[in-house]
Specification:
Oligomer: single chain
Number of strands: 0
Helix content: 55-70%
Order of helices and strands: HHHHHH
Distance between the termini: 55 Å
Number of domains: 2
Largest sheet: none
Strand content: under 5%
Structural class: mainly alpha
Radius of gyration: 21 Å
């Protein structure tokens, strides 16, 4: 590693430590709005129980999302993003998967 690269890395680590301790503000932040789960589900026309089954979460989890008690994370968040922009495609794809004879969740 050349000296310039090492110095930049060391400076970056020092800056990260200061941000973590609250002694400095980050140069930028990335924020993602939480999806409006209730609006997404209502747009599909599905009940809570049918929508929860379709996306593979418990009814209680879906209710917690809709009531703002919890936020979807990871793959669930990505799936809800797909539902918000392409609900018919998402429903068709998931129904096809659930209808497949090798699918254990039939």
């Amino acid at each position: 590693m050349d000296d310039l690269l090492f110095d930049q890395l060391q400076e970056s680590i020092t800056e990260a430590g200061a941000i973590h301790k609250g002694n400095a503000a980050p140069s930028r932040e990335f924020r993602f709005d939480n999806p409006d789960v209730k609006a997404i589900r209502e747009n599909t026309g599905l009940s809570q129980s049918k929508f929860a089954y379709l996306i593979g979460v418990s009814l209680k989890t879906l209710q917690n999302w809709e009531q703002g008690k919890r936020d979807p994370q990871g793959p669930s968040r990505a799936l809800l993003t797909i539902f918000s922009s392409q609900p018919n495609m998402a429903i068709a794809a998931l129904r096809e998967r659930n209808a497949h004879p090798m699918c254990p969740n039939r």
